[in-house]
Records
---
Amino acid sequence: AQKITQTQPGMFVQEKEAVTLDCTYDTSDQSYGLFWYKQPSSGEMIFLIYQGSYDEQNATEGRYSLNFQKARKSTNLVISASQLGDSAMYFCAMREMNTGFQKLVFGTGTRLLVSP
Amino acid sequence: NAGVTQTPKFQVLKTGQSMTLQCAQDMNHEYMSWYRQDPGMGLRLIHYSVGAGITDQGEVPNGYNVSRSTTEDFPLRLLSAAPSQTSVYFCASSYSAAPGGYTFGSGTRLTVV
């Protein structure tokens, strides 16, 4: 069964520094997608970045990038030059393309606090 | 560009009452899902639909019913509310073929007393 693990309940970073949020996954499907969502205190779920299992390059979107290590089944989110507005919950999620395409499975999240 | 619209945003129910959480999307997405979010547990899938007339259970379906009579709408029904159903509920939708993720509604905060 597919599973997402986020082992960091909380992370702290100073403004303008980089931070890495960890995520590991488990799946028997060879084709899958990995996602990161941001949930600010206002509660909405904001899509940040996507990595496909067959993508050879690590995904990047502005200040967000993924360190995708397929053999280790990990997809860590790197936020560069942290800003105060990055303080939020961050969720890693996975979608299996063959056996569970209609479902997103989430990790328990990491709360990031950016300090001035 | 409404995206995914959920109503109501907040609701307080008494134990045993019934209600329907509404979800509508205007993006012609085939897939729609309901999730609940509880502290420390992330988002868990309640029910999902892959098209009009087709629904299936997710990870935590007990106490909830769904139907999908149109592509646009996917209501979630609580037949007899229980305090354990106090949670934040999210509706989400997605294309069937695209590898991208789901688009989420803004959520409904439900309290059952």
Note: The interface with chain A takes residues 31, 33, 35, 40-45, 48, 50, 56, 58, 88, 90, 92, 94, 96, 99-104, 106-107, 109 of chain B (CB under 8 Å).
---
Amino acid sequence: GENVEQHPSTLSVQEGDSAVIKCTYSDSASNYFPWYKQELGKRPQLIIDIRSNVGEKKDQRIAVTLNKTAKHFSLHITETQPEDSAVYFCAAIEAGRRALTFGSGTRLQVQP
Amino acid sequence: DAGVIQSPRHEVTEMGQEVTLRCKPISGHDYLFWYRQTMMRGLELLIYFNNNVPIDDSGMPEDRFSAKMPNASFSTLKIQPSEPRDSAVYFCASRQTGVNQPQHFGDGTRLSIL
């Protein structure tokens, strides 16, 4: 089955700086990679996703890149703001399966 | 759209009691997932359904846990008897059929077993 590893587990940045979170996956058949943001006491919310036929996707201050050869994908947040502080989860889904495998999460703290 | 609706939001009960968590998926979504979240183990998939049929229950921790989906708009996760180590946040999520459709979570049930 799929195994997703996520780094770092915690990340602290100054407001306005960029933040990068990285994930690797094990199953080369995986073809969908969403990212979720979870604020304290709330549900995980989908913030961006990428499919295996695309190398990069952007949505305002967030972007995701995918390297299928190396089996890793990354979340990039530019011009970070205090409201970006949360736990971020990456995930992957195998082509033949219908359930996501989640990474262990990254706690991002944006210092004002 | 009201999103995935879970009830109750919080549940506190004593060890040995039966606990029932409820979930209403987004209308038109035919996949439903139950997750458990703890600090130690992160987000764990317990079981998921497709068109009301359980597809993979390999994440259900033991026989004390059971899940049902009697119709397309309702699912339950039951723990009987409950134990303190079952304390966690339980999330329900749903998505549509189709290649790589996004998955949406409910607000969760925070369960505390005393």
Note: Chain B touches chain A at residues 31, 33, 42-43, 45, 48, 50, 55-56, 91, 99-100, 102-108 (CB under 8 Å).
